[in-house]
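Lecture 7, part B: from sequences to assemblies.

Below are the input chains for today's worked example.
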Amino acid sequence: MSALINDLMNNTHEVPGKRASLVLGGLNNSSITDRVCEIAEAPTPPRAWYIAFAVSSSLTLMLFGLVGYLIFTGVGVWGNNAPVFWAWDIVNFVFWVGIGHAGTLISAILFLFRQNWRTSINRFAEAMTIFAVICAGLFPTVHVGRIWVIYWLLPLPNQNAIWPNFRSPLLWDVFAVTTYATVSMLFWYMGMIPDFATFRDRAKTRNRQMIFGTLALGWTGSARQWHRYEKAYLLMAALATPLVISVHTVVSFDFAVSQVPGWHTTIFPPYFVAGAVFSGFAMVVTLMVPAREFFGLRELVTLRHLENMTKIILLTGTMVGYAYAMEFFTAWYSGNRYEQFAFMNRAFGPYAWAYWTMVTCNVISPQFFWFKKFRTTPWLMVIVCIFVNIGMWFERFVITVTSLSRDFLPSSWGYYQPTFVDIGMLIGSFGLFFTLFLLFCRYMPIVAISEVKSILPENQNPH
Amino acid sequence: MNSLTNDPPLYWRSIEELEKTPEFVQFLHREFPQAASEFPAGMSRRRWLQLMGASLAMAGVAGCRWEKETIAPFAVRPANRIPGVPQKFATSIELGGSLRPLIVTAYDGRPIKVEGHREHPASLGGTDSFSQAALLHLYDPDRSREILQLDAKNQRARTWDDFADFMSDLGPRLRASGGKGVRLLVERSSSLCRARLLANLAGQWPQAKLIEYEAYSRNHEQLGTKQAFGQAYKCVYDLERANVILALDSDLFDFHPQAVSLIRAWSNRRVPESGEMNRVYAVESQFSTIGSIADHRVPLRSSDIPLLLNKLQVRIEARVSTPDLIIQTDYAEPMDRFLEILASDLVANLSRSLIVVGPGQPPEVHASVHQLNQLLGNVGETVSFIVDPPTDFPHESMEGLIEEIERGEVNVLITLGGNPAYDSDAFAKVVTRVQHRLRVGTYVDETSQLSTWHIPEAHPFETWGVGYSPEGLLTIRQPLIDPIFGGLSHEEFLYFLAKDQRVKRLEILRVTLKGILSDSRFDEEFATLVHDGFAEAYRQPTVKPELRIPTDVPQFKAPGNGLEVVFNLSSSTFDGRFANNGWLQETPAALTKLTWQNAALIAPSTATKWNVATGDVVRITVEDRVIEIPAFVLPGQAPNSIGIAIGYGRTAAGHVGGNLATGVKPVGVNVAHLRRNANAFIATEVKLETTGQRVTLATTQDHHAIDKVGLEELAGRIGELVREGTEQQFREHPDFAQHKVHHPPLESLWTERSPEGHAWGMSIDLSRCIGCNACMVACQSENNVPIVGADQVAKGREMHWIRVDRYFAGDIDNPQVVTQPVTCQHCENAPCEQVCPVAATVHSPEGLNDMAYNRCVGTRYCANNCPYKVRRFNFLDYTSQLADANAELARLMINPEVTVRSRGVMEKCTFCVQRIQTVKIDAKNHQRAIVDGEIQTACQQACPAAAIRFGDLLDQQSEVSRSHANPRSYAMLAELNVKPRTKYLARIRNPHPDLEKFNGIS
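Predicted structure of the full complex, as structure tokens:
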């Protein structure tokens, strides 16, 4: 792969006084449209797509099968026990919510900060967010003992006049995640409207005309529409920005507000958000690198894009490492025996292997991004990012399971071991994620055509 | 009942049954009709546990169990019966020949809860776990339902008439021959009816012989009194008067007939504020309950105990003869020091001390102990004696019976109860040489399978009876329900043998009592006896027998240095009779916390020497007998001593305890293969090998071997959770427990609600608690707590609402044990309530932490946030089989006042809210105040040690308020600001000042 990268394709040099171009290969307005639309308009996708889809959709089927088994048999099919009442169900939930972070961060926060390099990756990252949130939402939904009454978590008016308990962080979580999912979905869809219109205009079949015509909501591309659209997009970005912070903050409240030693820490909100951005970007890189190869998007998603993302990974990874160290400090400084033990137990107890896996993957592996070689070699990035994803899954495992397995009364200490259902559902959730993702890649505008065009040099200063 | 009489069945399930079609007969005679064939062969035991109680074959009949005469609809309500109001009856059960007085609550004619008899001195309200679990036994669908005629190949169902036909041929012949070749094999029993009927039978069958037999016999006790006094006596202890107690390998608080009342008496002397505390010394090979609470305990091989007693005797005699002998404490051998101080302490408390010895020690040791007690002036003070009258039947021993069978001298063997074919391999091998083998038994068990006739036995709650309690009080047994499966009592069967006809159960009792109660006021006294459950006036007199043996010291032989195996009863299955009882199987053993399994207990030092770890399967060989059993390394086990509980490995117990015929694997390992006979308690010349196999043991604590980090933390943490001190510490600083943890002032996030009307609270006195598990089984019974099976326990999913935490402290070879019952603490500032997203767990105005099962979604967040980890989650469906149309038998046992929880729902201790409500409603109806002590939780009621108090904290004078105000009182984890309503009273130990640092002998 590295052989493909020649000087022409490398825009990672810093030239004082001149911004590096974010679109390479001499693409212009019309060739960008062609390049992106052709992916969706091709009569058959690449062979690799079929293979990947076959695998991921099979895993998705397995996931649904296991969910059915779980619902019919009970939560006991998992390895959860007393005292580890929450295990992979919540680990997977937090993991996927974290993955879902990059999308909104790229679309909203980078938009507000006028980071132009976001344009070619934001669609992709937003889609990833949506799919990750779908995977995330699955786990808490099926983890409850009685899924048939799960709607009681919603504040629905009812004849018994019973409201949910507004003191419970779990309820805040319901609000935070549903809000996040809704706003992300709207934001994603809204961004796609001009591109849907392009698809519609290029459509050669009646079906495509009908489908994309409906999705485009009558977009004509008039100046008035653009004017209003951009205002609305800005407002949406402003609305979504606090959500980036809030959703993982509230997820961290599930832990921080409880009194389980190892959960009950005020550092959790920033630490969780940093970790979420960290894992989210790692996932974007992991997916982006192969996608740009397979779909010929190297000129749009350039090395500079990838390098920028690795820098964010390096930053957030270091923040996460700092948080790990800080947790130990606060535990020691608190003078609280239970708190201190929770951390000693993490590092040296029966789950020490998980803890050190986490530290290695999350703290050490991103440090490779100090080297330019790692920041500019796509396959090296992918390797590091896969380690980061593993590490972030383990972080959630360490927080959830080790804390619960040994809390206050030693008589109740336990040890959690996953069952085949636990493992199958984790793998299956990746299947679901990739299935959705592959469908997205095949049928949707995977790069924001109109936004990328706006950063072409020829469109920067039209007058 | 119908199979025993000629009456047409009152109830029937189908036309086929009425017509007795061949298809129906076949259906009925498959042991477990539907279930046996319709579940795959590899079905898990857990599935069967779900089905436990799911009676299929007798479903229709089981629906209603009134006396036959009262089945008509109530046009007029019978006197004393208010629908929906439970009734209580005094009754009793027997275990190993000792009687336990009980009060049983019946709800619409079905017994649902067993409690101790509050007025009876043998109970004082407390029970053991076996009595509690007897209820489950009553509703066990595996109980035998019909008369069977068996041969090597077949089991054929027979009616009572068939059996009567058979006996009409055999009976006269036996009478003609004077009972030649007849042997009666019976359990130990205190039944006076049985004694009378046996005497009758002895008259008819002068040539017949009787074998009284228990799998774990206590006849060394009896033989010991014979050696000491020349006659058999039963010992009656009075621990309330004993200042110093020495327990040698004793099961005084476990299986002793008097255990329940002795625990109470002992615990009354463990309350430092109410008087001088007693002091307990224990020398034993494996932890007994009294050993675990002893102030000083020495782990010693059981086979070394006789020698130790010799040494002690020398010292005691020296001191008694020379009272002002100086106490030397500078011995090189810690054991000598221990004996010196022990002897001085015993002699310093002449007539206020007591030495007890366990049933496993040889009769000579018992005799020696009687001699010592005499010397210490304890006879008539802390120990008295009741004459143990011999039966009128010529006696034979089990070994003698086996020899007789081998010689072909026995042609009729009548076995009443027991399970000798399981207990004794030698018996099982020869018994089929007897031509007629008649068996009355509750189950078609190992013994019944080797019999020619099996007659179903009625449960104690289905029969009448009378006997003497261990203290010698005349105590009644009355039926709570008509025999569900139409069984007979032993007495009825004996009556039939003698008279060739059936008799009303009550008649046997009345005739027996005619010889005891006064003639003139019989009906009156009988009614009082049935109502009260016992008659104080008819008490066996205690006597003060004269020592017969010479007072010189008998010299015991020194045993070898090798390994020994010590057999003991199981705290779950007793001698195997409770093997099919899920409640008891799932009750963790007090020290190992092991469920659903027996194990070879091995000391840490021995384990290191033999390279054995917990869970390793070891092969144990005694002479030519071999078993393979998992090892359990238990701190405090005597070095070179292996302790094993009998009563496991049943092959025909049922669907819970194991049944090879239906493919249910046995639970645990049958130790009978290693025992020579029922009198083999200690085996020496033992070979131990590892097999290389490992198994997972289902324990409720320490699910996973604890690593170094965990152990270090544990050592620092336990003292804060379970607070204890010595008597001296208490005298100096009565409130020392409250100063073990200091924390900054606690503030709440919100204004807390103050209690309205009542503030329910609990107090648990750790000084009294012995960790016996009676509370666990009582709670299980009261609150419909499901059992989950070994696999689920191994995963940590047991459902007990109250558990007894056990921690070790100090030296691993001779640790101190602390036990702490933990149940929902009903925090005023409950962390569980705050995090539940649907408000399914909320606070009541009276301060209860209520669980609204119907509202629970099952997020399990509450359980995560509970610092005491007392919440239990229904991970799987443990109960819905109860709703099946054919589970009527199982439903009979369910307490109707307590919701049965479904899958996916969290549950936990409610402070027995149903009991609170019952009393509140009654008080309101009668416009009266609730009296303190009127509301008792199930755990409190069952506790033999009276360690649990419950009541209203708003009432300053209530017992619980006073307990909370006690300086020993502390709240566990109070620093979390959860404000628990349960407080513990710190445990006070009473070590001898000179022995305080005594660490045993390695």
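Note for the exam: Chain B has a mean pLDDT of 86. Keep this in mind when comparing with the next example.
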